[in-house]
Amino acid sequence: MGLVAAKKKVAEILNSIRKDGRRELMEFESKQVLAAWGVPVNRTEFASDLSEAVKVAREVRYPIVLKITSPDIIHKSEAKGIKVGLSSELELRQSFGELIDNVRTYKPDAKILGVTIQEYLPPAREVIVGALQDPSFGATVMFGLGGVWVEVLKDISFRLAPLSAEDAREMIQEIKGYPVLAGIRGAPQADVNALVDTIQKVGQLVHEFPEITEMDLNPIFAFDDGKGAVVADARIILGEIK
Amino acid sequence: MSGEVKAIFEPKSVVLIGASDGGGRSVVSPAFFHSLVHNMLCFFKGKTHIVDLSGKLEGAIKNLNLVPKGRDLAVVVLPPKLVMKNWRKLLDRKVKAMVLVAGGFDQQQREELARGATKRKVCVLGPNATAGAINPARGLCATLERGLMPSRGGVAVISQDGAVGTAILDWACFYGVGVSKFASTGDGIDVTEADLLEYLTRDKETKVICIYLESVRDGRKFLKSIREAVKKKPVAVLKGNTARGEGKRDKIFAASLRQVGALQVGDVEEFLGVADALAKQPPMHGDRVAVVTNVGGPAVLVADAISREGLALARLSDKVVKKIIGKYPDINIADWVDLGIGAKGDQYKFILEQVLSDPSVDGAVAVNELKLSFLESEDVQAVAEAAKKSKGKPVVSVVMGGEDCTLVREALRGRDIPVYDSPQKAVRALGALRSYGKTRARVEG
Fold it and tell me: What is the pLDDT of residue B187?
């Protein structure tokens, strides 16, 4: 998709969210935006009930990931709203009800729209790319490794958008946890070039669409060098309409 | 910005406006007005008009309407109430630029000032520009601190806060760091840091631009003006208000400075230290630093600092080692070049010249300890000579000690070599030169 077409597509999605009176995109909607913008995401399809889920899963092909879709659940894994690596229709049928129950227990009044059936990604090193609008400087991109690196150690780097490839590379190398990506104890390097590309694209996206006030791609699976990086979960939030 | 910034720094004529008698209520404004009048009469080379609204100062103009129109710069030392009362009259004088020194204007008043500035095309610095504006080359000393006039040099200083700005000037006088231009921006209703950056980027006397900030206005414009500036000269920034707020925003500020090629410093002393080096020495184009010393221990500390700064000790080439040993067989060359405690100026000069001619060296630290050696402060002139002849490689001198460092600084006042009282500061200065070297390499592609 060319830039003009991509812009049009993203604007369409964002407008439809606005029309719904919402500011927060569902995971599958966020991934639609990213995919339109050329950021690799794992295939993610929405299903409103079990029979639809079964049908969609056949298209996506097993193994799959099953995730809850609810505007009231921000941390899906905390709510036990994720099942990873379901390998058959039987497993999907068994897990579906359990998943809904888990979420109901976690938050009884949560509005549940359905689930997403997602392409399963093999294990990889996990990173986070985020974006925000800084009050002084505007569109800003954030990078860090997944898990404790960001949450506990606050090991993150920032750059203003849009960024050059060199800026993106610097922000990857700047974090203390960088050796994890460069490869320690005989592990090969992660696909840093693919991450550079993702960071740059995220930068362009928030630069072009300042109404995106927050974006969280967490996690992104960074595969070994040459094998790419794929967004496994994503959250996009739009600003208040002025 | 509404007018021409040039009139702030390069006026031919200046109008000083204040009230020498606060009517018993305020003593602050009158006292500062007296200091300002003193400073301008003492240093300014152009024409000065003095306006005293309380009518008591002998020889001063009593009525604003009697001030000749179209002068370059007006410096106004009046409290907000009096400024607002006389605002129309002040604008009617048709000056090119105005410095509003006093602070304490409310939002509504600031907006009125901004409207007037735009409408009448007057370039307004302030209000709350408490440390005013200084240009040593023209003897412009429009500041409230009596007699505060730094020597002429290459360091330009912009400070949002008057007291921090004055402290920077105080250090500049103490270290003998020459200043090209100084301005305090205060509330910045008209002239912003970005406007001053544009002017200072073009200013031939300015070799390095130092900015103290507490808040960023129009962040993108500010960064754009830095991006332009670093193509010509280095920019160093000290940011206040970083530790108490949200850590994320400070990280973003630091990252954005890095992205545009500005250098961030942590305190006023470091500010002056790196600015002195950036004004006097060329950028460093590699990481390899040679250390030439007359004593052992201080060189060890320099070497430690080099490693902490992310730089490396240089390994001299065989050719250069042979040349040095050929002339001075007793000199010990290992991690650094140890001249021994008997070293005098001529030895420093010859050896530094050899070291700096070595392609495997990117810059040098000269350790010049006076105590426990036969070196005297005058000998350090040799380091300045060698630095002058080095083509494009920076040299800094370190005299670890308080009194001795002051002695050497005095001896080298006016020479283009920065002198530091600790290994840490000297190496930090080289680190700044290295960082600017990288920025230049990047912008020149």
Answer: 96
